Amino acid sequence: MTARVVLSRIFSVVFLMLFAAVFNGYVLSVLWGWFVVPTFGAPTLGVVPAIGIALVVGYMTHQMRDRIFRNEDKKEEPNFRQIMARGTAFAILKPLNALFFGWIVHLFM
Fold first, then answer.
1. Residue 45, phi then psi, degrees to nearest 5
2. Contacts with 51 (C-beta within 8 Å, 6 or more apart), sequence order
């Protein structure tokens, strides 16, 4: 594996991690504005503090991401593309799922 491939993989992982952190922070700030602000009269939460809170909560809670990256059916290890595809899907779909169902609940408030 060449140095160029290694650097591109490192860049891909770092970019995915940054994207996931920002997207999770954005979704948290929207959900906070929908539920916490009107219910408790709390101040609104900007995206940057929401990123920090999402990182702290993710750090302090048990995450079940490991099973997403394992191939239970197959004996071989997943390759880098499979891992990145699953990680990207997880980084996009988990916050979108929370935002979608939060939006539905918000309609009933």
1. -120, 120
2. 21, 22, 24, 25, 28
∠55-99-38 over CA atoms, to 5°?
90
Average pLDDT over every residue of 73-80: 74
Residues 6+ apart with CB under 8 A from 57: none
- Which tokens belong to 59? 């750090």
The upper half-sphere exposure of residue 83, i.e. CA atoms within 13 Å in the direction of its Cβ, equals: 12
Flag whether the pTM goes above 0.85: no
| Angle subtended at Cα 55 by Cα 16 and Cα 88, rounded to the nearest 5 degrees | 20
- Token couple for 15: 């970019």
Q: Domain extents for the chain?
A: 3-107
Q: Amino acid letter at 61?
A: T
Write out the two tokens for 109: 């408030």
